[in-house]
Design the sequence.
């Protein structure tokens, strides 16, 4: 899908004025077109050295609260800037809740997994939640026996670039740009 987007933007640039096909030589008032061309690259917006100054300028401008640049040569839409400082490994989802220390963010397994038998309640005992490292531990029948299953938790990872905008260029798939 990203290749289609890049091809679409490159095709538009080939029919557009020549300053759009060479990001390093774009006119100052066409910085937005340069940004769109670089963002549509399947290899990433900073893969080519010619794109790095424009993309770094974009990140600075967005971080300072400026709007996304415009380009008369392409149709695009960008969301308002967002902030998402944490992420989880594959197979986990981010969960934010309020606990005794205020707002807490953890990664929770998206699927039940086998966990230590010591975490499951004994017969006749009930627990409504796990002990912090596993949520909702419970006994389940598996292969003719019982197995303690739960949702393991992990600490979230911290993004080096926690701000983002979602960009849609020429009606193609929306791409999240982190800065």
Sequence:
């Amino acid at each position: 899908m990203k290749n289609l987007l890049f091809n679409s933007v490159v095709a538009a640039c080939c029919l557009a004025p020549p300053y759009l096909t060479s990001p390093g030589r774009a006119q100052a008032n066409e910085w937005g077109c340069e940004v769109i061309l670089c963002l549509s690259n399947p290899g990433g917006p900073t893969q080519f050295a010619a794109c790095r100054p424009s993309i770094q300028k974009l990140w600075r401008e967005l971080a300072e609260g400026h709007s996304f640049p415009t380009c008369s040569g392409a149709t695009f839409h960008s969301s308002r800037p967002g902030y998402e400082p944490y992420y989880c490994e594959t197979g986990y989802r981010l969960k934010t809740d309020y606990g005794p220390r205020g707002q807490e963010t953890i990664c929770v397994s998206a699927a039940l997994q086998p966990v230590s038998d010591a975490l499951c309640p004994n017969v006749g005992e009930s627990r409504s939640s796990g002990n912090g490292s596993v949520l909702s531990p419970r006994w389940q029948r598996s292969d003719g026996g019982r197995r303690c299953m739960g949702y393991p938790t992990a600490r979230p990872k911290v993004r080096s670039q926690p701000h983002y905008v979602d960009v849609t260029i020429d009606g193609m798939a929306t791409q999240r740009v982190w800065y």
